[in-house]
């Protein structure tokens, strides 16, 4: 149901705006990401991954527009020194403020929601026999669980180098839980945060 709701929002947004848009640009965007979970009871470390996918930019005014995308993303991090590889589909929808320097170059800032859907493993065994948590059973594997869906907020900035190429960076903060620590002395909800550095080619 949530996937259907997000799809309706995306289609409605990009169906209404083009009527008054000054420019519509299709492209491909990709880059590297760095993410980390926050947990109270165990150590966490950030790690690098990558993402790529199609993007659509719509300028309503020379200085104001919107940008959406659909990314395949693979992020890597550690929980209790165990690798957590999260594969997902990300759908960011950002409002964008452009500072035009020349007809083809400028700066921009952006912000907006990002919806995510887990497409890979969701269960990870991060504890083994002999750990300090004596309540963990040896045969219990699902000690850290990723959520099936995610909701985050993006804060971005970048530079338009030409009409067809730009570089950007986005800081992402989870609004809803992205994971959960299970079967320890107490359950602990996990939220992720991180950044994404990208290059975009517009056709």
Précis, in short:
The protein is 7% helix and 63% strand. It is built from one helix and 13 strands; from the N terminus they run H-E-E-E-E-E-E-E-E-E-E-E-E-E.
| Distinct helical segment count | 1
Strand content: over 45%
Fraction of residues in helix: under 10%
SS class: mainly beta
Rg, alpha carbons: 19 Å
Poorly predicted runs: 136-140
End-to-end separation: 33 Å
What is the assembly state of the chains in this entry? single chain
Shape: elongated
What sequence of helices (H) and strands (E) makes up the elements?
HEEEEEEEEEEEEE
Number of E-type strands: 13
* Main pleated sheet: 13 strands, antiparallel
Residue-averaged pLDDT: 84
Write the layout of secondary structure elements.
Blueprint: H1 2-16, E1 23-38, E2 44-45, E3 47-61, E4 64-69, E5 71-79, E6 82-100, E7 106-118, E8 123-124, E9 144-146, E10 149-162, E11 165-174, E12 179-181, E13 188-202
Model description:
The chain has one helix and 13 strands, in the order αβββββββββββββ. It has one helix at residues 2-16; strands at 23-38, 44-45, 47-61, 64-69, 71-79, 82-100, 106-118, 123-124, 144-146, 149-162, 165-174, 179-181, 188-202. The model is unreliable at 136-140 (pLDDT under 50). It has 203 residues and is mainly β. Strand 3 (47-61) and strand 4 form a beta hairpin. It is elongated and about 60 Å long. Strands 1, 2, 3, 4, 5, 6, 7, 8, 9, 10, 11, 12 and 13 form a 13-stranded antiparallel β-sheet that branches.
